[in-house]
Design a protein that fits this description.
Distance between the termini: 48 Å
Mean pLDDT: 78
Number of strands: 2
Largest sheet: 2 strands, antiparallel
Number of helices: 5
Helix content: 55-70%
Strand content: 5-15%
Order of helices and strands: HEEHHHH
Strand order of the largest sheet: 1-2
Length: 157
């Protein structure tokens, strides 16, 4: 307990973070991760890891470096929208992008990282994710080969 008292001595409140993670199968009870904040190493917090995973997922989908693009969301005010509803939807999407950019900037400030350093972390996570996908594909191929040739099935490693 003394460890936590020293860590949060100068902080007036907000020692924990509750991160909802969905609902449990079966009884549909809400679940969450309760995190004790680490003011010494903000990059070790669950929320930072979640942000990196989100950025890595976006980078995998868009196949381009994502951090600088996420930090400076653009809105084409001169674009022609077919209806007021389409314009409102575009504004809502822009607001979401801007909130996400603010979250990234706050995480970078807390972890004392530059955009380039955060991009390196995201790149590492992307590479790790690609390796996991390759391993999973290899497992699926091996299972398929064993299904077709159950006896003396060759292993594809």
């Amino acid at each position: 307990m003394d460890t936590y008292a020293k860590r949060f001595a100068t902080r007036p409140g907000g020692f924990t973070r509750v991160i909802p993670i969905g609902y449990r199968k079966g009884d549909h009870a809400p679940m969450a991760v309760i995190e004790i904040l680490n003011t010494d190493k903000p990059e070790a917090e669950v929320s930072f890891s979640y942000l990196v995973r989100s950025l890595a997922s976006m980078q995998l989908n868009e196949e381009t470096k994502i951090v600088n693009a996420a930090l400076a969301p653009t809105f084409d005010a001169k674009a022609v929208y077919p209806s007021k509803r389409a314009f409102k939807q575009a504004l809502d999407e822009q607001a979401i992008k801007e909130r996400f950019a603010m979250k990234i900037k706050k995480a970078m400030t807390n972890a004392k990282l530059s955009a380039e350093q955060l991009q390196e972390i995201v790149d590492k996570d992307v590479e790790h994710t690609k390796e996991l996908y390759e391993k999973e594909d290899s497992k699926k191929i091996n299972a398929y080969v064993k299904e077709i040739w159950p006896e003396n099935a060759p292993s594809l490693r």
